[in-house]
Amino acid sequence: MATVEISNLKKSYGAVPVMHGVDVPILDGEFVILVGPSGCGKSTLLRMIAGLESITSGEIVIDGRRVNDLEPKDRDIAMVFQNYALYPQMTVAQNMGFALELAGRSKADIKAEVDKAADILSLTPLLDRKPAQLSGGQRQRVAMGRAIVRHPKVFLFDEPLSNLDAKLRVKMRAEIKALHQRLKSTIVYVTHDQIEAMTMADKIVVMNAGRVEQIGSPLELYDRPDNLFVATFMGSPAMNILPAKANRMGITVAGLLELPGLANVMVGTEISYGIRPEDIVIGGEGAVPVEVLVIEPTGAETHITARLAGEEITIVSKERLSAKPGETLMVSLASPRSHVFETATGRRI
Ligand SMILES: Nc1ncnc2c1ncn2[C@@H]1O[C@H](COP(=O)(O)OP(=O)(O)OP(=O)(O)O)[C@@H](O)[C@H]1O
Ligand SMILES: [Mg+2]
């Protein structure tokens, strides 16, 4: 187990900078998830922690030791990739023990470690099989087993579940979370999956174009995004953002809805008013009319796309609604859980 301190980390490929000074503090035993759009630098950051990619400037400190110039094998880190590439000719047990064999550990020692990891991962009955005789989820568990037997200080995962089908992902998600609780290891984990990030992380790092936009617990990011990027990136369906303007009493949203509040903002300032689809209430006080465009019942809830004064909005309701496209629905957009951003800077007000 270990802490990881990432300070002012920069990376350029040739003359092209792709990371512009990233700071991420990681506590001992913490499960940290990196999210962000494709190409924002998540894999590059993981690979720099692992030592597979050089550091242009800045510092990575693992367990109090600066590792910038350490070889990957000396960093005491295990990385599990999306394409975990097991050795096809080796059995599960041989795949899992291979790194220990390379490290020159005794046969008895290797067997003990492999048996222990197999037990944790429910792989014991499969130890003599070849990878081709395993399901996708079982193969993914073998890849994790290879990492576990080494007792690394830090586990790095780069989208380890993205090759699995939806049902298996949910199962593996729970397994990885249980594994973390059991091993109490420090984990840095990259995913594209919002639900994975929200349900597994102690701390989420939202990255964008080689920078960190915000770091916080899943609910901190969801309930109090620092800026428009995080507000619209976290959450699915995404937060509605409506144009608004500051006036003397508060703000006018989409030219028709007057909401009170907002201290210290100059009259006339362009505002982005954010409200999550589930925070829009159907009916309610001060409701305004919207035109229903699309209705999607998912079973558990109803998703509605509607038009409000030229803006498209998404509403998620727990109710089963019978409204049809073209009809008018009255909705309340004034929520205590709404968000207000300055449009020019994108910053939360
Ligand atoms: N070897 C390389 N040479 C040049 N540029 C690279 C190299 N590897 C990555 N990049 C660039 O660095 C940036 C970050 O890439 P990275 O793979 O870290 O993104 P990512 O966040 O992991 O994206 P994805 O979600 O698609 O996996 C991208 O703009 C990418 O094009
Ligand atoms: Mg990547």
TrEMBL record:
SUPFAM superfamilies: MOP-like, P-loop containing nucleoside triphosphate hydrolases
InterPro entries referenced in this protein's UniProt entry, alphabetically: AAA+_ATPase, ABC_transporter-like_ATP-bd, ABC_transporter-like_CS, ABC_transpr_MalK-like, ABC_transpr_MalK/UgpC-like, Mo/tungstate-bd_C_term_dom, NA-bd_OB-fold, P-loop_NTPase
Protein name per UniProt: Multiple sugar transport system ATP-binding protein
Keywords, sorted A to Z: ATP-binding, Cell inner membrane, Cell membrane, Membrane, Nucleotide-binding, Sugar transport, Transport
Origin: domain of life: Bacteria
Gene3D superfamilies for the chain: 2.40.50.100, Nucleic acid-binding proteins, P-loop containing nucleotide triphosphate hydrolases
Pfam family, one: TOBE_2
Membrane topology category: Peripheral membrane protein
Domain ABC transporter: 4-234
Native source organism of the sequence: Rhizobium herbae
